[in-house]
Write a structure and sequence with these properties.
With 478 residues, the chain is α/β, with parallel strands linked by helices. The protein contains 18 helices and 16 strands.
Length: 478
């Protein structure tokens, strides 16, 4: 059996999750569920990044220890994954003992000549957990968080990223390391061709409040969060703790996929492959980069004060409705605006009046005519759906499915089966119902990765010996 591996990035836990991370969770879940539907043994990893200095600052602001803040907020991120019906195999916390062991093992696995100790002075943005050059600032401010970076001067360990410039350029340009969409591939190549600079991979333990993964052999340093956090992709499936699982889902897995946001492309497409090359470990096969969610055109962010809480949206519309909106209304790889008015409009138009109406009509016709379930058979997957999912074009796949839903609703209108029922044309009605229900069951099968609860309800309702009306899939909102 072929294996596949899919991961989200792991977000900081300095605040509650916002709807932007819900987008990433749902996209990764669709990829994993789709591969399982094809018969792959697929491992889906998500979790939380807890060793960041910004978490230390957030904890201090609330009068908490970093551990208490991380325990509290990590639980909320896991609650979100559960509320969205994310089919993860493991929810990893980077403050766990197993992750610490794996991150330490990875540090020692890197080539000795690639890690050097040196004095450094630079402009540091705590929000990004990254150093900036003056030329990369916008009016002297971080281009992501809009704040002036602070000057940091200390002795750190550095990784010789510059030694991997040619190798990384070849891997990405050749497609051996596939970055999608192409605009993000070109962005990564452009960054490399500007000339790679060695980067700091540790922080002074005292300045970090002692919070973080200790550097092996040096009690004065903890690992830079973007060193230890990236290793979660290895420690999640078992690096340093479960050799068999690690071999199966990373080392010998042919399909390793990261799903990330565009603001962390540099770390995943450049830093991470270089670190893996140094440690002698396989690289990811694909990095899929999604855009940002915006509110009135402005990026959503915890630090920007415009975060949209996904939990009330799930409570009002349901997990599958929010999943549908994020997958359909936000084009893959691009930014997309989110508002409750738009969610409500898409809910009524596509879900209540489209899919929900189709299933409800068929259930009513079956109940009135005494019709039972169709024979079990293999599902038909529209090729345009399969092709779109292979490109991570979630919106395109759903458009193809909803075109079929529209066709079926129009066909029912044209046939007017309720008149066949009145005229007691049972045989002709049965032929139509068999075809329509078979088509809806095909739709429900291909909807499993997108709307898992809805697909299950459709299949259960249309597989009874006597099909009857059930509760509406998506009650209309007035």
């Amino acid at each position: 059996m072929k294996t596949s591996y899919v991961s989200t990035s792991i977000p900081y836990v300095n605040a509650r999750p916002h709807v932007g991370f819900a987008l990433e969770l749902v996209q990764a879940d669709v990829i994993a569920r789709w591969r399982r539907l094809q018969g792959d043994d697929t491992y889906l990893l998500t979790g939380t990044d807890e060793n960041a200095f910004k978490n230390v600052q957030a904890a201090a602001g609330e009068g908490l220890t970093p551990r208490r803040l991380c325990d509290r907020n990590a639980a909320v991120f896991q609650d979100l994954a559960n509320a969205l019906d994310i089919s993860y195999n493991r929810f990893i916390r980077s403050s766990s003992d197993a992750h610490f062991r794996g991150a330490s093992l990875f540090w020692t696995a890197c080539r000795r000549e690639d890690i050097v100790l040196r004095q450094y002075r630079g402009l540091y943005c705590v929000g990004c957990e990254d150093f900036y050059l003056k030329k990369d600032l916008e009016d002297g401010r971080c281009p992501v968080h809009g704040v002036e970076p602070e000057i940091v001067e200390e002795t750190n360990y550095f990784f010789r990223l510059s030694a991997y410039q040619k190798t990384l350029e070849t891997l990405i340009a050749s497609g051996k390391l596939r970055i999608l969409p192409e605009t993000r591939r070109n962005e990564a190549l452009g960054f490399i061709r500007q000339g790679l600079q060695d980067f700091s991979i540790s922080r002074n333990r005292e300045r970090s409040g002692g919070w973080g993964v200790p550097v092996p052999g040096d009690a004065t340093q903890v690992m830079y969060v973007w060193f230890d956090a990236l290793t979660n992709y290895l420690t999640g499936p078992g690096y340093g703790s479960n050799a068999g699982s690690f071999e199966r889902y990373w080392a010998n897995c042919p399909d390793r996929i990261h799903v990330i946001g565009k603001d962390i492309l540099k770390f995943h497409a450049i830093f991470w492959p270089a670190l893996l090359l140094s440690a002698g470990l396989p690289l990811p096969r694909t990095i899929f980069v999604h855009g940002h969610l915006t509110v009135e055109g402005r990026k959503i962010g915890k630090s920007l004060g415009n975060a949209v809480d996904p939990f009330p949206l799930i409570g009002r519309y349901g997990a599958d409705a929010l999943r549908y909106y994020l997958l359909r209304a936000v084009r893959s790889g691009e930014d997309g605006d989110v508002s409750e008015a738009r969610i409500r409009d898409v809910y009524n138009t596509d879900l209540a009046n489209g899919l929900g109406n189709l299933v409800r009509r068929l259930e009513a016709l079956c109940e009135r005519s005494g019709y039972g379930c169709v024979d079990t058979r293999d599902a038909h997957i529209p090729p345009d759906v399969s092709g779109a999912l292979d490109r991570f074009d979630f919106a395109g796949a759903l458009r193809a499915i909803w075109l079929r839903i529209g066709e079926l609703n129009r066909e029912i209108d044209a046939v007017r089966p309720w008149e066949l029922l009145k005229r007691q044309k049972a045989e002709r009605l049965s032929e139509h119902l068999s075809a329509w229900i078979g088509s809806v069951l095909d739709i429900s099968w291909v909807l499993r990765p997108f709307l898992p609860c809805t697909a299950e309800r459709i299949e259960t309702g249309l597989s009874r010996s006597r099909i009857r009306k059930s509760q509406p899939l998506f009650p209309r909102l007035t």
